[in-house]
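Objective 1b of the project was to move from sequence-level analysis to a structural picture of ligand recognition. The entry below was assembled by the postdoctoral researcher (A.K.) and checked by the PI before modelling. It contains the amino acid sequence of the target and the SMILES of the bound compound, flavin mononucleotide.
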Amino acid sequence: MSRIYLNAFDMACVGHQSAGLWRHPEDQGHRYTDVKHWVELAKLLDESGFDALFLADVLGVYDVYNGSRDAAVADAAQVPVNDPTLAVSAMAAATERLGFGLTVSLTYEQPYLLARRLSTLDHLTDGRVAWNIVTSYLESAARNLGLDGQIPHDERYEIAEEYVDVCYKLWESSWEDDAVVRDAERGVFTDPAKVHDIGHKGRYFTVPGPHLCEPSPQRTPVLFQAGASPRGMKFAASHAEAVFVSGPSPKVVRKSVDRLRAAVAERGRDPRSVKIFTMLTPVVAETGELAQAKLREYQELVSVPGAFALFGGWTGVDLAELEVDEPLTYADSDANRSALASFTTADRAWTPRELAGFIGLGGRGPVIAGSPTEVADELERWVEEADVDGFNLAYVTTPGTFADFARLVVPELRRRGRVPEQTEPSTLRERLGFSSPRLAAPHPGAAYRR
Ligand SMILES: Cc1cc2nc3c(=O)[nH]c(=O)nc-3n(C[C@H](O)[C@H](O)[C@H](O)COP(=O)(O)O)c2cc1C
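Corresponding predicted holo structure:
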């Protein structure tokens, strides 16, 4: 019986994937500015057996729907949004096992800075950090970060290839393991002979010097990737140790998973070593009837404009320009291509009316409502049919969705041997099944190790 990995999927904002649900009396999303909110959530997840808290991020507002940001702003649809990385140290100090998957776009920040930030967090979390490598998708982000518009989709991945190369050099090869000697007698804290310049001069980046940080427990954080266009998948096949995908059905997700595992194998890596997570929103109660009643209550609070604002940002498609029963068509854009493909070419073309009923709760992934056994059955079906290793569980209300899942579904998954009893503290890489805290060959980053 294979293990099912569980991440809680959240964002440093009020409304993440379920637009309008901030109006639910139990929702605590508005406390995203309170560090205690994050610490309480981290403790809940840590104590109940979640593997990681996975935090999404965007660097712009969603302003495609109706050509305006008003719907997103009014509905708190991923705006206001704070920096996701800053509460992590506080959460790490209050937990021992929980990993932290941090989405940071590489499109608008120099690798030298990001490598330092992630090394710092790897130190402060005792090796429990993952970097979700994304290249962004919002025009509004590009414009506010000094560009006229987005860098073309595939070129962003070309930049990404060089970007991670710089990071590997900084993380893996700049400081030798025994560089820090702390020899008080000789007056040497770090042996200068064991700190090396990386001497990187490439097409996009120049970094002559050494990394600013001494080696952290994992050196390179666990590398997640999210982006499943053909170019995105090529990138993932080389670099990702874990991949985050999404889709409305196991059939749609399975297509991406098969392509991805085949591409990983082509690069000489074990396709099963790459852990694949898909997005899913659980609505669970003691009985199936209670769960269905809860679902109906949630559905009444969905904001369709808020949901369409999110969809517009993800895909670049303004649903206001379509008739309500007009099927969507696929066209390449500089937004998130796999998001649009999953509602057009991957299976069938959805209409705005259908999307309104689907993405309002749980965004681009499915909502599974039921009793603990029904939800566990569905998770097992997804694992089987989509061939995924785990889930990024999105919330309808926070922390309510996570607390219900922890109380009702985790014990059921444990009974089925899908989730282990509380494990010993370890690095996140080891928790995800790798034998060492460090990147393992044949990962390209491991080649830089001295
Ligand atoms: C499931 C999933 C989640 C994603 N989450 C984020 C995110 O939180 N922030 C972000 O900037 N991009 C995110 N992305 C998109 C990536 O930025 C990606 O590099 C870019 O949109 C191109 O995606 P594509 O290769 O699927 O076209 C996500 C993509 C997927 C498939």
